[in-house]
Amino acid sequence: MPYCPWQFSPLKGTSLVPLLKLVDGDVEHNVGVLWRHNDQPTAAFLPVYALSPHLFTQPRDLAKPDEPSLDEVGSTILLDTLHRLSK
After folding, report:
1. What span, in angstroms and rounded, lies between the C-alpha atoms of 63 and 10?
2. For the chain, first and last CA: distance in Å?
3. Of 38, 49, 82, 84, which is the most exposed, with the fewest CB atoms less than 10 Å away?
4. Where along the chain do its domains lie?
5. Is the peptide bond before 2 cis (omega within 30 degrees of 0)?
6. Residue 41 and residue 15 in contact, taking contact as beta carbons nearer than 8 Å
7. Between the CA of residue 78 and those of 10, 46, 47, 75, what are the distances in Å?
8. pLDDT greater than 80 at residue 60
9. 46 neighbors 18 (Cβ within 8 angstroms)
10. What global pTM score does this model have?
C-alpha cells in the first residue's frame, strides 16, 4: 500500500466526504476527501500518488517521457474529483 501520512477518520458528522479509500485487508483508510462548506463542495485533497501514472496499473513504456501524463486510473480519479467539485 502506498504511504500517505494523512488519513481522515472518522468522517461521519463532519464536512469531509470520502473521495479515495485504500483497503488493506479488512482495514479501510480514507486518504482522499472532499471538503464541503455551507453545503457546497469547496476543496478536495488527494495524495499525490493517486495521480501518479502506473502506480495502480501495469507499467508501460511512456510514449513521451518528457511530457508527464495520467494513466487510466489517475484520469478517472481526477475527473471524478473535478465532477464532484463542480456540483
Report:
1. 41
2. 31
3. 38
4. 16-85
5. no
6. no
7. 24, 9, 11, 5
8. no
9. no
10. 0.78
